[in-house]
## 1
Amino acid sequence: MKTNALFLTLLLILAATSSPAAGEEQLLLDAPIVLRSGDIEWEEFAEAKASPHWDIEFEWRGEEPAYLEWTQYDVKQSWEILLNDKNLASLMQDENRMAPCIEIPSGALKAGRNKLSITPKGKTSVDDIVLERIRIGSGRLSDHLSESKLVIKVQDSVTGKGTPTRITLLREDGALASHGLLATSAQPIAGIAARIGTVYSLSGEVTLPVPAGKYVVLAGRGFEYSLAKVEVTAERGKSTAVGLKIARVVDTTGYAACDTHIHTLTYSGHGDASIEERMVTIAGEGIELAIATDHNKYINYEEWAVRSGAREYFTPVVGCEVTTPRGHFNVFPIAERAPMIPHQQTNWKELFGEIYKTPDVGVAILNHAHDLHSGVRPFAMENHYALQGENALGWELGFNAMEILNSAATQSDLTQLTRDWMALLNRGLRVAPIGCSDSHDVSRHFVGQGRTYVRCNDRQPGQLDVRECVQAIASGEVLVSYGLYATLNTEGERFAEVFRPESHDDVEVCVEMQSPHWLQADRVQLYVNGELLQEKALDTGVAVGLKNQWKEMFRIPNGIHDVYVVAVATGPGVEGNYWRCAKPYQPTSTRWESRVFACSGALWLDRDGNQKRDCARDYALRIIEDGKGNLSDVLMRLEQYDRATAVQALAVLHSRKVDLATAEVLAAVSRSSDMVKEAYRDVSLEIRNQALSVKNAK
């Protein structure tokens, strides 16, 4: 994106030499510019001529009152707007493309020459932002935002009844549009949660004051539903009826949509979603099992859900994000009047002891393991052996679930946490994969975009059996979704179950992927013991009706030891503001590719016939014991197994203080199979890199 320097120069000259008549607008910027705080944040802006701030001087002879309107994109950090060197407002900290409006206080504009500036606020942080259009209009902001009305009604196309929904309002140019609910409502409106370009309605209805103009209106209810779209012209002084119908198109029968990571401004103290608004957004995104996880507080949504009228749409669960100096953990369910979990605890063994003795608690989730909080990144190289699935500092990995997808804190490598989770399975830990939103907001990072599907009786979303759901999560009977829905089974057995083949033949597994018409997968991968077995590209053609569906069989080669199988589906991400995929929260690269994602649970194949799950670590320990200290014998035995088993065996030897760099070890490895050599190389590299990372950290 390049700035038109000649146009901007002419614009500055015109602004400095001309002024508007009373009641007209003053156009200050009409061509996109890029502002940069710190280093380049994203590769897409690398070629742009970026500036650290923006200033313009202009003449003003318009009458008061007046308002300022601008179009922004990709604003992550804090930027302030100065009028005549005094703070007027801040840009919206929101990466979506949007058009905010603010009223200019009386006396802030001077008759004659004025100066408008936009500059980073506070400590310099890396941020590339785009400004596209800035103007000052004469008149009251509330009048401008109420020139016309859109009377919107969203219905379920099957029942014909109103339905909880998320409505997106876009200007003709695609930016999220400001509207009158943001300026004319002194009190919150029951059953409504409104932000720029976004309105959640519990009933499916809303009367939306808007400036006169052309709009695109969209309606949906999470990724299980179709997306309705209509273009409309709002005429000054008139009301326009807008009807939209949506349908549930993704079949999730037998699974409840769960968000395990939900915050409110009311109780967490940051973000912007009040407790009242949160009830509406949960219903509007189709979440059926809602876990309250404000920081170090036990919050019960029950009363709020009943009061709002949303209780029939979801089952609330009391939880807590136990926010410690050494990691964040979502814990639930928590009994009424249970003692507070000591969140200052830094010893993981003692912390998990406190967590599991808290009445009713059945799930403890490790949150955003690669993100830095309080100076600690749990799965940083200096703390964690990712390949081995083992903490390098001896911290007890007592959680029984972990986030592999957090839609508010995605990773530069979307599947990194999935690989970390599979390594934990190889290590022998019973850990369930979790998808969640970590939402603190109404619309910036919205609730339910990342979610977990929990196996249960889901016929009545408002009356789910919480105990059944908790047991399913703890047992790994879950699917992870970020816009796609992938299931895995074989001969009637489903993921999270143990399947015993009747013969030593290869095993066929079935992968099925679903998505609504507005999302799609283009790649399916099948992993066995964390190793990629097969990858298939999918045709991303036009959806049939309102749904995309794909189903295919995969063959798992025979072997002598147990393995688990996991299916992962990915596809092009959503750039549109109706369901936009967020950029990484703490990126490790300036390059980013927007993708959607799904992950099945793990299906265990009991190939040794002992009717239990044996992991790679179990086999590694037996091989080492049978080898009786003879390294060459251990390496030879490993050749009958897979890379995951070899990795675990080498990790065990390292933990027992065996020096893997001696001439004897190198000679034994040189006589081994290519698979064992690769495992040795990777384990040795991880051990070396961890040691260097610890040294550099000091």
Note: The first strand starts at residue 26 and ends at 29.
## 2
Amino acid sequence: MNWVRRWGWLAVAPLVCLLVYRQSFVVWFARDDFAWLGISAEILDFPSLLRALFEPRAQGTIRPLSDRLPFLLSYTWFGLEAKPLRIAIFVAQCANLVLFARLVYLWTASRVAAVVASLCWTLHSSLAQPLTWASAMNQILWPGCLLSALLCRHAGRRLGEWIFFVLGFGVLELNVVYPVLALLRYPDRWRSTMPLLAVSAAYALGNRWIAPANTSPVYAMNAHPLSILHTLGQYVLMSMGSFVPWSVHARTPYLLGATLLALGGLVAVGLLERNRLMLFGGAWFLVCLGPVLLLPGHITDYYMVVPAAGLGLAFGVAAVRRPRLMVLPLAAYGAGSYLLGQEILLYNRRQAEAARVLVRGVEQAVALHPGKTILLAGISSDQFWNIVVDDPFRLIPGARVYLVPGSEENIDSHPELGDRLRHVLPRPQARGALLSGEAIVYAAGGKPLRNITRYYREIATVEWARELAPVVELSQPFLSGQLGEGWEPIEQGFRWMHPRAEITLGGPGKTLFFECYRAETEPRPGPVTLTVRHAGQVLGVLTLPRDRCRGEVALPEHLWAAPALRLELTAGPAFTLPPDSRALGLAFGSIGRK
């Protein structure tokens, strides 16, 4: 049992972490998780795999080892089962706590300081987000690289330090701050730090050059000193478990009092002792937080994960140097952080449970109605922005899911986050799908989802009867009622017309557009002529070569406001397709007015 006495103290923080975050294992996916899980559908070959892993996304970030590969492997191996990924993230954080405790022990030669430091980090409320929201796992994976590099530097293992330093860039771009931390802790090794600083500078410049310009106001950078100080002040309050920006409750005044007590105790010991490691802990906090202080519109609790380790180091040293003075500050810090962390955990669990009910409900609906389009009614604004906007339904094989017409009226507008209308099926398409039996409507307001198709069929018959769509996607069955004679059944993404066909388009619109397809194997190498008529009048003639099968026709001014246009299309020369010798004109993807 000697090894237990010698190394058992390293397990204290992981065991407390298990006790505090034991509920995290049952938290499902939510919000951005669905966007990252969906990258598996983009991978068709090796080049597409490289694009999925390294193409700049999400504000221009390139994180193949955190945002990409873990989600890709999780979905490939376990589908929409979240528990394996949750366990992996938790194990990674337990490894971080062991590495951190070992590092603090090497710096202080005190097991008490190491245990207190790792416990302060464990209890910090910022850990609740990455442990219960998979999209923030980069805040768990990056400290693993950073701490491993520091341990290698302490041991003089230059190769190991470089390996973990380089891996850190694949996890999180904030890894650029590592050389500054290494230089502050080991100033006598400045020569070996210069190459690390050069790599960080090159990465920062290269990332800025490769990544597309970020236009979101949420991520707008502000380098004004007053803005930086204001942002820093909010992070300092968050660092002591006082609040998070989105949460205000009755306990806030008490948490603020606990924050002031914890911060006051730490500052008092720092002034009394003037200890280098305590100063380094404060520098760790500022350096790791530094890059995000330029983002006043995106003050986020999970940005505190790695800076909180610096606070843990300062608390650990203070607890050894002035144990009596630090009892109350440590208790206040631990209580405030724990309460806030549990609130974040429960909030994420509720969000994920709502997502699970909706997505699994749609999965059951798809299984009950194979081949049908599922329309969702009663989607709230919270459900839309936390679940639907990232299209989790594409992860369900065979699913075609839209919101019922008018859903956008109940959803708050956030154009910086996404387009509400992209997920709403327009009334003409919904009417056609419902009356043809192609669509089933489910109410998403409760648990489980309820089939309310009959109610919406009545609405489609009475209220949506006169509306015509200005654009007809011929690869979809929804608007088959706007097609006249001369059309073949839907094929893979298109529909063939006979040499002559009819289609009706809604309005208004000044221009007609036609998107068609021509195969390389077509037995007519020359161009195809498409003649467009309305009420016997020729509106335009398009000559469509094989390499550019798209065209537009300008409408006469007297037809711009016409609520409906019945078009006669003639394509030639026609050809026949064996074995049934069908006479065909052109294959269309979409026809519409604009």
Note: The two ends are 79 Å apart (CA to CA).
## 3
Amino acid sequence: MTPGLMQTTPLMISGILTYAAQAHGAREIVSKLIDEPIHRYDYAGLGRRSAQLAHTLERLGVKPGDRVTSLAWNTHRHLELFYAVPGIGAVLHTANPRLFDEQIVYTINHAESSILFFDRSFATLVERIAPQLTTVRTLIMLSAEDYETLIAREPETYPWPSFDENAGAFLCYTSGTTGDPKGVLYSHRAVVLHAMAGGLNSAFGFTAFDVVMPCSSLYHATAWGLPFSAPICGAKLVLPADRMDGASLHELIQSEGVTFTGGVPTIWTMYLDWLEKTGQRPDTLKRVVIGGSAVPRAMAEAFKRLYGVQTLQIWGMTETCPIGVVATPTPALAALGEEAMDEAIWTRQGRLQFGIELRVETEDGTEAPWDGETSGALLVRGPWVVRRYFRKDADAARADGWFDTGDIATLDANGFMRITDRQKDVIKSGGEWISSIDLENVAAGCPGVKIAAVVGVPHPKWEERPLLVIEAHEGAAVCKADVLDYLAPRIVKWWTPDDVVFAAVPLTATGKIDKKVLREAWRTHLTS
């Protein structure tokens, strides 16, 4: 083998910052804050303040490899941590404030963080858990009084070091719905490659004319890599802090000219409901990417039909940085006509992206055909897929590199992947499989339904049967008969839920339906 004769410059997160400050220095970053006026600066300003923060971290004793934790929303100060901490060779652990206190404490202690940065709105939480934090020696509020005072006198330039691109950069923990949360340690190489792929036309399709507003939380798998993909492409960034209600999001979309945004389905359910009630329109918005759980078809149709906004599904997980697939159109689909193309995009999680390999494996270990019908365990492999969980001895991936996602899926001839269920959520009724996701997607289209959740519960004859739990929109007049009548012409008869109940649907810390809680709450419903 003849070695190549090209330079081996390592892929550094600081390289993204340096590039953005040079090539798109005047492109704006707009940030809401918890209790301060809106903040405006640009990529050049981000570069200067990240340099000041890097000097501050070193002054506080942070060394390469050390962990630093953040408990913060989508703000410019949190964004500065995203660049300064890994930039000096340390690791940023983005703690998830929506976890239970015990889980937050567990992740910070497991990370062995020395410094905790937190937004003012988490002051009470931090005060509550601080005595249990075994390694944190410094607490810093991300406020004008504390954070700004700390960095104010530091130099606005910093000699970002170059080191092994496989060094750790971000430590993100799974939501821990079963057992303790597991740490996924992203490398510089993985983050940079993931960011480059995220901006491609097959994924988010960014240009320097885009205005990107991440409504996926910065603490959740680095907000789908948007804090890195947007600067690489020179897009304007709009950071909404913790304000994810319809009115707040619409104000930013209109005032800042947002063209692209993304988040979990519950955010967009509330936003569409707000638009309907107020008669407002998102004038500049072109694309909404939705992940975390399957996108209800009715949501995608509403965005397109009423507002001309394209809905893109995304599938991924903390273990994939998190982009796995994105549902974007192709010429082959377009040739089938607009209706067929929409059908494919709205009913599938996405298509094969460069950098991620997909494999659907049947129960006997063989690869399923790419026919769009044969389902099996979904496995992934690639440069931004987890190999081993943080501080674990055994690899999470197999010896051949494949990582079992825990999802059941199909792949079709065009490379589109469709999640049919989680392995633990699929319903086995009388020896036949029922997809809880498919049932939820149909039920979510029923007028008055805010969230539809389907779980399998024990049945004396059929082993399991589907139970449909509905959380209705406030003031909506919808009953069991309405839901069943809506489902009847849209599903096969034996998939019909054995009962429909109305209750608040619990969500996980990442905004997904918490089926573990639902199964436990309703496990005797059909047997008692």
Note: The longest strand covers residues 449-459.
